[in-house]
Specification:
By secondary structure, the chain is α/β, with parallel strands linked by helices. The protein folds into three domains: 101 residues, no CATH class; 285 residues, P-loop containing nucleotide triphosphate hydrolases (Rossmann fold); 239 residues, P-loop containing nucleotide triphosphate hydrolases (Rossmann fold, 3-Layer(aba) Sandwich). The chain contains 21 helices and 23 strands.
Length: 682
């Protein structure tokens, strides 16, 4: 620092004084150049602070035109006698090489990260895990201030919510990992629960679904805004419950918990990553509902111990961002544009940001007072290896206590959740949770409801021709229905599956071939399925009628279930000229269920399927995909207020349940499934 201490006040000198204690820890040094003119008119208070600082520094002095330096405040006899010679100024070439090397080394040095598990005062010691209380608030250290003191995020009656902004690669994801992992290490689920919304297909936070982590209530790792809305509706009900039990008698949860030790309320942290991306992809109606609820939480949850961490880029593009921002006293800006930093912390924040090296991904400017007094903190680094080790230890701790997570994972890919029934089979061949005739095809849009697709009679899957995605959704429902029945067969061997695929035609496209996973599976394992194309429709139908007659006449046992999967019969030619087949199909649909023969039909185009004369009567259970108004009248009588689109569907039975169909699995997942099924191949 040149011309020291000109321009500095007592506060800055004391900061330098505190920094000297941690120089060796942080690996930095200070060189303060003090010309005589800089100390001639120093005020007494600054002189006193300067004297305290000088005691911790090695002071050397050059007098007159001397080419040597001498130590002036050392206790060492040899240093007092030493005379330090000064090198001459290097020539231009040497100086250029030195500058180049300094730039290279400084960039490399800035990549040095403070590992979370090595960070004193940040990562708690093992003996202190799960012991902190949250009645008066949540305190989670995540990094260090410039002076070396731990920086702690707080969530309490004053610091209710936090706002985090940062560009891609700025370290925002690492900050959230440190926050959530450290929170779980410090607080038990009885103290703090987490709702996590990751709007990047779970790329960053899928790890939390891989372990037994009871701190999590719900994890949304998909890009469906309606899932998020359902999650927020669930949290809104929790807020209403807390309001009802606390009433007007208790103004905050610490008061309530003190008076009700046997019925305590824990604190909740809702973490929303990439909020702008979320609302951008939502329909107008869903977007308004999401932002209305977030705005409501921002204003009304202080007393109920519900806190938000809103994160992302371009948050200022959200319509009511200002009202949300004004409720977030805690604000953090990682590397991002000046305009975004200024929006959070005015010009002082921008000035602070300019002092941070662009390669220092862990550094951010923060304010704990609504944008005033911005400072800099350096978030510790939580690498994958460290995190997995910690999460495994947390998971084992709760498993040993027989405290199993009840987390609801909102997903669109079954591979995202290792605890999913299908994923358990693909990973480890586990069939324990498989139930007879329970078809697992998607996730309900409301997290309070469960999608119990267990047809006791027949199932009509209608629609899908309205868009390419809706058609894929139909393929997915058929595949996962067939897989559900297959795993039930492998578990109990009390059913047989017949598949007639009228869409399996020589002239179909490569894309149609690749999407037809149910056709691939049923054709590959002919000992587990009876597979045929639409050309065998009449033959299969006659065989089933013969089986029906035998069961009805008691000459054949009906204890063994038969499931016929009939895929897109409207694709067959000549059905309208064959009234016998139509009559036979209606008889099978009407009488089959009473004799344990069930049919699953998918008509992608209900209008073309009218030739089959399918009515609503043989189908108490229906799954409706995207289709036109006239199709809705054919299938259920009238079009719903909100018709499903793309991968959305409605399960229509005694009640109507909207749900999101699982994505079709990729080739890697199918290969792993086939590896498990190969043991049954004859």
């Amino acid at each position: 620092m040149m011309n020291f201490p000109l321009g500095l006040g007592v506060g800055e000198l004391r900061t330098l004084n505190s920094m000297t204690a941690d120089c060796s820890k942080w690996g930095f040094s200070m060189v303060l150049a003090q010309p005589d003119r800089a100390v001639k008119s120093i005020k007494p208070d600054i002189q006193e602070a300067l004297g305290e600082l000088s005691k911790k520094l090695l002071c050397i002095r050059m007098t007159g035109n001397s080419k040597t330096l001498k130590a002036v405040n050392t206790e060492s006899f040899s240093e007092k006698k030493a005379s330090i010679g000064i090198y001459p100024i290097p020539n231009g070439t040497v100086m250029g090489n030195i500058a180049k090397e300094i730039r290279t080394q400084s960039v490399e040095a800035s990549r040095v990260l403070i590992r979370f598990t090595d960070a004193r005062g940040i990562c708690p010691e093992r003996k202190d895990w799960f012991k902190q209380k949250a009645d008066n608030g949540i305190v989670v250290p995540i990094g260090y201030l410039d002076g070396g003191q731990p920086f702690k995020l707080q969530f309490d009656d004053k610091h209710v919510h936090a706002l985090v902004m940062g560009n891609t690669g700025s370290g925002k994801t690492n900050l959230l990992h440190v926050l959530m992992t450290n929170l779980m290490l410090r607080y038990s689920p009885e103290e703090v629960m987490i709702y996590l919304i990751d709007f990047k297909y779970g790329l960053d936070f899928r790890v939390y679904t891989q372990y037994n982590l009871p701190n999590f209530t719900t994890i949304s790792i998909n890009n469906d805004p309606e899932f998020v809305l359902g999650m927020l509706q669930n949290l809104e009900k929790e807020q209403e419950y807390r309001s009802s039990v606390m009433g007007s008698r208790y103004q905050k949860i610490s008061d309530y918990n003190a008076a009700n030790p046997n019925n305590r309320i824990n604190r909740i942290i809702l973490i929303i990553d990439e909020l702008y991306e979320l609302v951008k992809q939502a329909t107008d109606e869903v977007q308004k509902s999401i932002l209305k609820k977030i705005d409501s939480f921002a204003h009304q949850t202080r007393a109920f111990g519900i806190h938000m961490v809103v994160c992302g880029q371009d948050l200022d593009k959200i319509d009511n961002f200002e009202t949300i921002k004004n409720q977030c006293i805690t604000r953090l800006a990682l590397h991002c544009g000046d305009d975004q930093v200024k929006m959070l912390m005015e010009d002082a924040g921008v000035a602070r940001m300019h002092t941070i090296d662009t390669t220092d991904q862990g550094a951010c400017v923060f304010s704990l007072s609504g944008g005033t007094n911005p400072q800099i903190e350096h978030t510790t680094y939580l690498g994958t290896d460290q995190q997995e080790k910690l999460l495994n230890e947390v998971s084992r701790f709760y498993i040993d206590k027989n405290q199993i997570t009840g987390v609801k994972v909102l997903l669109t890919k079954v591979s995202d959740n290792p605890n999913h029934i299908f994923q358990k089979y693909v990973n480890n061949g586990i069939l324990d949770e498989i139930k007879y005739n329970r078809l697992i095809v998607g996730e309900p849009m409301s997290i309070e409801r469960e999608l119990v697709l267990a047809p006791s009679e027949n199932l009509w899957i209608a629609g899908g021709h309205s868009s390419e995605k809706a058609l894929e959704a139909g393929e997915s429902i058929l595949f996962f229905s067939a897989l559900s029945l297959l795993l039930a067969k492998l578990k109990s061997n009390n059913l047989d599956i017949i598949c007639t695929n009228c869409n399996d035609q020589p002239m179909r496209s490569i894309d149609e071939e690749e999407r037809d996973l149910v056709g691939q599976m049923t054709a590959k394992y002919k000992n587990l399925f009876k597979y045929s194309t639409g050309g065998k429709f009449a033959e299969v139908l006659n065989w089933l009628l013969s089986e029906l007659d035998g069961r009805a006449n008691k000459t054949k046992a009906s204890s063994h279930a038969l499931w016929w999967i009939l895929i897109r019969p409207e694709m067959m030619n000549g059905l309208d000229d064959n009234s016998t087949q139509i009559i036979n199909l209606k008889e099978l649909l009407q009488k089959g269920p009473k004799n344990n023969i069930h049919t699953i039909i998918w008509n992608a185009d209900p209008k073309r399927a009218q030739v089959l004369q399918l009515g609503k009567e043989p189908f108490r259970d229906k799954v409706c995909l995207g289709m036109e108004s006239e199709d809705w009248k054919i299938v259920v009588g009238s079009e719903p207020r909100v018709a499903p689109m793309d991968y959305k569907a409605l399960f229509v039975s005694n009640n109507t349940i909207p749900f999101r169909v699982y994505d079709l699995p990729d080739g890697k997942w199918m290969n792993r499934l086939f590896e498990k099924l190969d043991r049954y191949k004859q």
